[in-house]
Amino acid sequence: MSTTATTFPVTNPQARARLLDTIRFDMRGLVPVVSQQHDTREVLMLAWMNREAVEETLKTGKVCYYSRSRRELWRKGATSGQVQTLVDLRLDCDGDALLALVDQTGVACHTGRRNCFFFGLREGRLVKLTRPEVAPEELYGQ
């Protein structure tokens, strides 16, 4: 068993194909991806990838997702500058979910928060646990 991590980007097309052929994409051709900050283990977000997004992520070393609402590739940070650099990509035991260990530049959430998991149930109420670190208008030029 090899424990040496792969270096990203992955330049070998056969290596990329081996992973892509192992992933069990759903009926829509998608796989869920949990993004986690590689050094602190903070869970940043949950998103989706299709085969093309996984391949681009492996090829470039920059995380690329698939936007279900826009039905197109979503290159994380293309608009906001809040890029995720891939450190490691792991496949779960069933082959139907990915864990992307990343180095997050800035905030991960489109609301301007560090991560997307900022709602919590407190005393019977759903509350926001963190404040935005950056105004969304600054991220997206609105």
TrEMBL record:
Source species, domain of life: Bacteria
Amino acids binding Zn(2+): C93, C109, C116
Enzyme class: hydrolase
Locations listed in the record: Cytoplasm
Stated role: Catalyzes the hydrolysis of the adenine ring of phosphoribosyl-AMP.
Gene Ontology process terms (BP): L-histidine biosynthetic process
Entry protein name: Phosphoribosyl-AMP cyclohydrolase
GO molecular function: magnesium ion binding; phosphoribosyl-AMP cyclohydrolase activity; phosphoribosyl-ATP diphosphatase activity; zinc ion binding
Cofactor: Mg(2+); Zn(2+)
Subunit structure: Homodimer.
One annotated Gene Ontology cellular component of this protein: cytoplasm
Family named by the database record: Belongs to the PRA-CH family.
